[in-house]
Design brief:
Blueprint: H1 4-9, E1 15-17, H2 26-34, E2 39-42, H3 49-62, E3 67-73, H4 82-91, E4 96-101, H5 108-113, E5 117-122, H6 125-133, E6 138-142, H7 157-167, E7 172-175, H8 181-189, E8 195-197, H9 199-202, H10 211-219, E9 225-228, E10 236-239, H11 242-254, H12 260-267, H13 270-276, H14 300-324
Parallel strand pairs: 1-8, 2-3, 3-4, 4-5, 5-6, 6-7, 7-8
Antiparallel strand pairs: 9-10
Helix pairs in contact: 2-3, 3-4, 8-14
Length: 325
């Protein structure tokens, strides 16, 4: 399948594995890229630029296909060494960067000077248009269904994707609620040039996370996520567990007096415990409503091959068949 996204990134299939904290290591990125998609290493999971350089080298050893690095620009007190991370990306020969969080404008000159293609993750049309204006090559449009941070507008993809298609000139992929061939065909029908999957790729054999995490996603339904930190305007969609229930009780009790300090026990330093140690109740961790569509743990190749095969069947038989009838 050829779309503007496959052409832009030099990949076979219009499927991207988005950056995920303590999930996007070289093993997963290489497996996705080897299967014809675009794998992405999560930059800030690596504690230093030197660590990222090593992870990029590990990924190059596992694939000769294009892969990217995610850089999330966070509004935190101690700013990471972003120029150092960008230098590691440039020196490592990576030509694709997925940016997320705050506006990446400050770092665009460094990235563009190195010939890097930038895809920015956005949760609204206005942010997507801003990304286009500052020179991003593509955007990942994140609907309200998504795991992690869906923004504060609460617009699901059935509305958000056609709106993005109406406004944007650059290519974009659909993110949030993406799991299978139906997701891909629907995204294409609404104007996207491909799809980005996060939660679905956690539940794959190559994802270097504890099996408890994969089993929790498979066991979950579309009813098992919760929105936390709404009162802090830092909304995150997470899988429900005992820590999340405690967090929601605190939010309810404190109301508009809630501060980040009140929830730090449930949200800070959680990912190593969950993803590496398998302590799935250790705190709040990102998971999309798409968990309701995830019923197995395939290899990345099995998953991507199945999506592309079923997408062709959907288009050629179901949709064309309706027209023929």
């Amino acid at each position: 399948m050829k779309t503007r996204i496959t052409e832009l990134f030099g990949i076979e299939h219009p499927i991207i594995q988005g950056g995920m904290h303590y999930v996007g290591f070289a093993e997963l990125a290489a497996a996705v890229s080897n299967a014809g998609g675009l794998g992405i290493i999560t930059g800030l999971t690596q504690k230093t630029p030197q660590d990222l350089a090593k992870e990029i080298a590990r990924c190059h050893a596992m694939t000769d296909k294009p892969f990217g690095v995610n850089l999330t620009f966070l509004p935190i007190v101690t700013t990471p060494d972003y120029p150092g991370y960008i230098a590691a990306i440039v020196d490592g020969g990576v030509k694709i960067v997925e940016t997320a969080g705050r506006n990446p404008q400050e770092y665009m000159p460094l990235l563009k000077k190195a010939g890097i293609k930038v895809i920015h993750k956005c949760t609204s049309v206005r942010h997507s248009l801003k990304a286009e204006a500052i020179g991003c090559d593509a955007v990942s449009v994140d609907g309200f269904e998504c795991g992690g941070h869906p923004g504060e507008d609460d617009i699901p993809n059935m509305i958000l994707l056609p709106r993005a298609a109406d406004e944007l000139k650059i290519p974009f992929v659909a993110s949030g609620g993406m799991a299978d061939a139906r997701s891909l065909v629907a995204a294409l029908a609404m104007g996207a040039d491909g799809m980005n999957m996060g939660t679905r790729f956690i539940a794959t054999k190559e994802a270097p996370v504890h099996d408890n995490v994969k089993q929790a996603i498979v066991a979950a339904s579309e009813l098992d996520t919760r929105l936390v930190m709404r009162g802090l305007r830092n909304t995150e969609r997470v899988l429900n567990n005992s820590a999340v229930e405690r967090l929601l009780e605190k939010e309810k009790a404190l109301g508009d007096k809630l501060t980040f300090a009140d929830v730090i026990a449930e949200v800070a330093g959680v990912y190593p415990k969950v993803m590496s140690e398998g302590l799935v109740d250790a705190g709040a961790w990102s998971c999309g409503m798409v968990a309701g569509l995830i019923h197995d743990i395939p290899t990345c190749k099995e998953l991507i091959d199945r999506i592309m095969r079923d997408a062709e069947t959907l288009i050629r038989k179901r949709l064309e068949g309706m027209l023929a009838g």
